[in-house]
Amino acid sequence: LTRRAAAQDLAGLRVVVSAGGTREHLDPVRFLGNSSSGLMGWALARAARLRGADVTLVAANVDRPAPPAVPVTPVTSTADLDAAVRAAAATADVVVMAAAPADFTPAAASGTKIKKSGDGGLELDLVQTADVLAGLVAARTDPRQVLVGFAAETPSDDADLLALGRAKLARKGCDLLVLNAVGRGRVFGQPDSEITLLTADGAQGPRAGSKDTLAHLIWDTALRLRSSR
Ligand code: CTP
Ligand code: CA
Predict the structure, then answer these.
(1) For ligand 1, atom 18, which residue shows the shortest CA distance?
(2) pLDDT in tens, 149-177
(3) What are all long-range contacts of 135-143, with beta carbons under 8 Å and residues at least 24 apart?
(4) Residues that bind CTP, according to the entry (predicted)?
(5) What is this structure's pTM?
(6) How many CB atoms lie within 10 A of CB 6?
């Protein structure tokens, strides 16, 4: 790690990393959210900075100190994330979407706290949020810009994981998809993970390791994709 960090092979590159999980407010005190810890995004930002990149970290609801020398733009909802990432991506060489955006948001948030009515339940009317990554792919003007997505899936087996990943890579149109299997206590909030890297050329992995080690592997691959253009 130290030797690779000293290589400064990302010097001169502007990179954007998104991290954490977005929240969609139902009312002033409640939200729909997810359990993304932000650890992978933090590891990616730290690794890129160590290798000399100019890093912007867009963080959705992550309660940790910023990595050294990395400016953090805090966001709450998927719409906020979309605006912040789009703005930063306009001048970026690489964008890594490690954040877990909420896919649905209330059709109309209540301005006041929702009250129980009798012993009845509650039906929520939800609409889809903007797909940030798909928006980046559509808005790309620099053909050398590298766009990286993440996919956490709950597959039935390893073959299913790859099939889900290939379909998502094709649907999103990004250059690299970092796949991991979640569920049964795996990945979320843990210092280690296991990833498979999917590109149009094929699959690399699965590789297990600390999120710091895996972050370096992701930058190696992103850099290789950029050099090949
Ligand atoms: N993503 C995004 N905007 C969204 C949802 C997801 O940019 N509104 C990004 C994530 O940050 C990730 C990639 O897209 O890099 C894949 O996210 P994922 O949730 O796996 O994909 P979805 O298209 O939302 O599909 P699914 O129905 O499986 O959740
Ligand atoms: Ca999703």
Answers:
(1) 151
(2) 999 998 888 889 999 999 999 999 999 99
(3) 135/82, 135/86, 136/85, 136/86, 136/89, 136/95, 136/97, 136/174, 137/172, 137/173, 137/174, 139/86, 139/89, 142/93, 143/229
(4) 103, 113, 150, 168, 172
(5) 0.95
(6) 11
